[in-house]
Amino acid sequence: ANIDAAQLKDASSNEVLVITDGGALKYFNGTSVVNVTPAADDGGGAPANVLATLNTTMAPVGIIIHNNRLVIWGANSDQISHSKPGFYDFFRATDFQRFVRENDYIVQCASFSGAFIVLMRRHIGVLFGDGYSSPATSEDWSQDFLDTIDGCVNPKSVQTVIYPDGREELFYQSDRGVHAVYTLNTLSLDTSA
């Protein structure tokens, strides 16, 4: 089975190991692995918790922590969904992004240089921002694609290397060998055309 996990410090300062395996989102309760019970909605017109829906329509296969949020994605999907900050059981209906490009799908995700990197089969998406403004606005996030034609073929190949001088590189395996992301040169910033 393809299992992924991330440890999150929740809003109550508890360390929680959250697990994805292509079924419902799970967590380790200290003695066994059990399904995450979705938290109750906030009410008052706030966006609903859609974790139960995500478990059935986009069963999570990958998970990572970015900006104190769990980020999950499903198999053959172009969508990431992120939790309410500090929660592993609350995924608001409005907290998702799609990376639509040539019918591509997500292979793995990583944090890199403060941005959220979405390694897809044929492309690499990038999400900037943190989504912490209150109330949330469309300017909380911006997304683009890196200027590359080499996507990721193996989720287990993705590794971040931090050098002694603080530089970061994100390595991954593509169809044409091992590649590295060392700068966030996005398509919208490309002036070569």
Structure characterization notes:
The chain is mostly beta strands and 193 residues long. The protein is built from one helix and 15 strands. The strands form four sheets. It has a four-stranded antiparallel β-sheet, with no helix packed on it. It starts with a strand and ends in a 12-residue tail after the last strand. The mean pLDDT is 91.
Fold topology:
Elements: E1 4-9, E2 15-20, E3 26-28, E4 33-35, H1 51-57, E5 60-66, E6 69-74, E7 79-82, E8 96-98, E9 106-112, E10 115-120, E11 124-129, E12 141-145, E13 159-162, E14 168-174, E15 177-181
Antiparallel strand pairs: 1-2, 2-3, 3-4, 5-6, 6-7, 7-8, 9-10, 10-11, 11-12, 13-14, 14-15
Key words describing this protein structure:
single chain, 193 residues, mainly beta
Q: Describe the biggest sheet?
A: 4 strands, antiparallel
Beta content comes to 35-45%
Shape: globular
Strand elements, count: 15
Quick recap:
It contains one helix and 15 strands. With 193 residues, the protein is mainly β.
